[in-house]
Amino acid sequence: MKRVLQRIFFPALLLILLLSIIALAYGISVEKKSMQPISVEKKSMQPISVEKKSMPPNIRLDPYFHAPQDREDVIVYFKEMPSSVEEFASSYGVTPIFVKDDIKMAAFETSPTRVPGVTSQKTKELIEQISKDLLVESVKVDTFMFTDKKSDIKAMPEVITPEDLDKNGTIYSHEKVIVGFWRFPPSLEDFAAKYGGRLVNLTEGDRNLLTAMFETDDMTGFINNVSKDPYIRYVEPSMVVGHVC
Known about the structure:
The protein is α+β, with helices and mostly antiparallel strands. The chain is built from seven helices and nine strands; from the N terminus they run αβαββαββαβαβαβαβ. The chain has helices spanning 2-35, 85-92, 121-131, 162-168, 188-194, 204-209, 219-226; strands at 72-78, 95-100, 105-111, 136-141, 158-159, 176-181, 197-199, 211-216, 232-237. The strands form two sheets. It has a five-stranded mixed β-sheet with strand order 5-9-6-8-7. A four-stranded antiparallel β-sheet has the order 2-3-1-4, covered by helices on one side. Strand 2 and strand 3 (105-111) form a beta hairpin. The longest helix has 34 residues, at 2-35. It starts with a helix and ends in an 8-residue tail after the last strand. Mean pLDDT is 82; it is low at 1-6 and 47-67.
């Protein structure tokens, strides 16, 4: 019996040992392979080719279209009007384009061309020089009043009456009037009271555009009287949405 067991056990033990050795050898081989660094092909970065397109040719404008030619100018408010506006202008190398003696105001061209929103160095220097003149109360660059060289400048105010709007069927306020000024009078409240009106809230935009809104119980009378005032540039019933009665 003992011999039989020896015949079976020893060969089986050898077989198990052999299989273990084979398995161990296989495992070591696999591990070595897995530890080998992976070769990554390096590809050089290729710059993206961008097609350069030439700028389109200049657009030819309609020959019948004429853009307004703006000039650069300054508005001067005087303490006292100079004895000669032409001599005053010549002393600063500018050209007079508008004079209104009764409110001590004049406008002078400083350059025949103007870039909207930009004040040239020349005009800045002129403003500094003119502001030091003993006759001058204040001076500022003009942004809208006289900039269009083709505009017909008239000292007489432009007047639109309720009757004018009624003929056109235009809806307007029957109590509110818009007044544009060449320059503001010393007191807008006193101005309003003088002509039977009341000043409505004055905004920063109104100040910049030299305009004001007034309420009145007699629109026709207010417009007729105000239109004779030397400070007035234009007067009309309010046609602003939100102020219509």
